[in-house]
Design goal:
The chain is of the alpha/beta class. It is 40% helix and 23% strand.
Length: 293
């Protein structure tokens, strides 16, 4: 029976003490306001307003509705403001401890930025430490802080990548000793964080003839094609280039098996844009891994 317009009418009458001024504040005419008031009094079978020549005031029944209006109207206005206000700009920091992800993740980020115009990315491709303070981190190391939300995308294998012109190309697998006379191409990551050193070379006390840091995957693969060096990369990364560039992938002994994770801060995990990022990343990684399953 009581509607939002009735609450606003009673509130305006109490505030202005005049039907004319109340009508003006509500962007309506005095006659329309009077008609609405009489209709409400008829429905409630009670008098809500005392009228005289100069002013109007609320009866006890009218004041009880005013109390309700004072409680309800601010809440309603707050909800309406929340629903209609322009979304605030949202900047999310995103880093790669697994550098090979950069190539396929950038198109996903670009698409999300089109879907969410207020979203911007603070991209970090210089992440060496797993404890970096980032909203989103792509990493191939499991979470140890117990505070972040970690989502596994899937498992993959690190493989040696060599030119077909390299004498190592005839081998079925490479061990630490095979790297001793080679130039090893790596991402710009400290050596003590590279799996090929941690799991294969250092335990065998082998140091490559030369280690050369290269900024991105595409450059590494082009250099391998030119027989400038060899590298150890995720199998899914090399698959798309293997038959185009005259390069070959070779398994390692011991094998290096990894899992790829998305690590999220808890306060961004529920954002729709972040959830879309997780879904798109999982789908893309599954596609990349199809040849090996």
């Amino acid at each position: 029976m009581l509607e939002l317009k009735h609450l606003r009418t009673i509130h305006a009458i109490q505030q202005h003490g005049s039907l004319t001024k109340a009508a003006q504040s509500l962007a309506t005419s005095q006659s329309a306001l009077s008609h609405q008031l009489k209709e409400l009094e008829h429905k409630l079978s009670t008098t809500l307003v005392i009228r005289d020549k100069r002013s109007v005031s609320l009866t006890a029944q009218g004041k009880s509705i005013k109390v309700l209006a004072d409680e309800v109207l601010p809440k309603i206005e707050a909800v309406i403001a929340t629903l209609t206000e322009r979304p605030q700009a949202q900047s999310l920091s995103l880093g790669f401890a697994c550098h090979a992800c950069f190539q396929w993740l950038m198109p996903i980020c670009s698409t999300l930025q089109q879907d969410y115009p207020n979203l911007s990315w603070d991209i970090r491709d210089d992440v060496f430490e797993q404890e970096c303070d980032l909203d989103i981190l792509f990493t191939d190391e499991a979470c140890t802080d117990g505070q972040s939300i970690e989502i596994a995308l899937g498992k993959f294998e690190q493989v040696a990548v060599v030119s077909e012109l390299n004498p190592l190309a005839i081998k079925s697998e490479l061990c630490a000793a095979d790297f001793a006379d080679q130039t090893l191409l790596t991402y710009p990551v400290p050596i003590n964080r590279l799996d090929i050193f941690k799991q294969v070379l250092t335990p065998a006390h082998v140091i490559p003839a030369k280690t050369r840091q290269v900024a991105n995957s595409h450059s590494i693969l082009q250099m391998i094609h030119g027989n400038i060096g060899i590298a150890v990369l995720p199998n899914w990364l090399v698959n798309a280039y293997q038959y185009q560039l005259g390069i070959k992938t070779i398994g390692l002994k011991p094998a290096i098996t990894k899992s790829l994770y998305i690590r999220l801060k808890s306060d961004v995990a529920d954002l729709m844009s972040v959830q879309q990022l997780v879904i798109a990343s999982r789908d893309k990684f599954a596609t990349l891994m199809q040849p090996f399953q």
